[in-house]
Amino acid sequence: MTPKTRIHTSVSAVRTLLSPPDLPISALLRARSIPNQRLVKALGISSTFVSDDPGVHDNFTREAKVLITAVSAKDGWSRLVDVTETCVNRFLDAESLDFATFVQSVTLSVVLAGLLGTDIEDLDPADVAFVTKAINDRWAQSKSSTSLTPEVLDRINHHIIRWVPDRTNPLNLIIPAYETMWRVAAIAVVYSNRDCLLRDAFISYNENPTDDQFRAHANEGTGAQPSVEAIVSEVLRLHPPTRHITRAVVVPWWKRPFVPVSQKSLLYGSDPESFNPMRFHASHAAPRRDQLYAFGHGKLKCVAASWAPPAAAVITAKIIAKLDNVAFTLHEGPRIGKRAGWEGWSIERM
Prior knowledge:
- The chain is mainly alpha-helical.
- It contains 13 helices and 3 strands, in the order H-H-H-H-H-E-H-H-H-H-H-H-H-H-E-E.
- The chain has a 3-stranded antiparallel sheet.
C-alpha cells in the first residue's frame, strides 16, 4: 500500500514537522542518525549527524560554535575575507576551468584555511580537486547500491589529516561546512552573473563585506534593489541544498523522506517557482529569513545558520569580482546543477 502523501505549506506545519513538540533530544538525534548511517561508511564521519548520543551532539555543537565565534569577530572576519580572496586567486590558474570544480576547491580551501587554520600554501590544487570530487562521489554513491571502496576514503583522509593534523576526524567539521556552502555559492554566482543589479550588490559587498552591507538594499521605494542577504535567501529558498530530509519514523507524522515545501508556497507570492530576491524586501510583504528551512528548525537547527549565508556571500562576491568579462568570463552549461549536473559550465580566461 502506497503511503499517503501529506503536503505542508504553512510555517506552523513545517515547524511542527521539523521539531515535533515534547520530543526529547535523544529521540530527535536517533531519528536523524539512523538514515545517515550510510555516511559512516562513505565518509567515515562520527559526528552528531550519525550519532544518537547527546554527548556527541553537545561536543560537536560546542566545537562548531567556538570556530564560528572566532571567525565572526572583527579580526577573524577580516582574515576570512582575505583568505577567500587568496583562495579564489590561487585556483584561477588555467585558461579554462571546470566551474563546479573551481567553486568546490575554493569553498573547501576557505573552510580549511579560514575556519581550521590550514596553511593555504599546503593546499595543492590537484589534491584539493581530488578531495572535493571524492567527497561528492562518495556522498552520491552512499545513496545507491554502488560499492564503496575503502582506498578512496583512505586517500581523502591522507590529505585531510595532513592539512588539519591537530583534530580528531576533521571531516566531522569539514563536511557540513563545505558540502552545502559550495552549492549555494555556485548558484548565487550564476544568477548574479546574469543580472547586473545582483552583480552590483555583490561588487558592493566585495568592497565592504560588513553586516550592514550584507543587508543593505540599494536605493529605496520603487527603485529599490536586492540586498546580498535577499539574494542568498532566494538561492536557499529556490535551490535548498538539502532538498529531502530523512528521518527514521519515531513519531506518527514523520515519513521518510519528506520535503518542507513551504519554501515554494504562496507565502512567497504568486510566482514561487521564479528567482526573485526582491520578494524579501519589506515593500513586498516579505517573508522572514527565519521562515526558510535550509538550516532546519528547532533543537537540531544548524549552529551555522547565521554565519553561513554571509560566508557563502563572501565566496560569491570574490568570484563575481573576477568574472568581469575582461579577465575571466563564465560559460554557461545547459542547466543549473545541484550536487551534480554542472556539465558544460566553465570559467574561461579572456
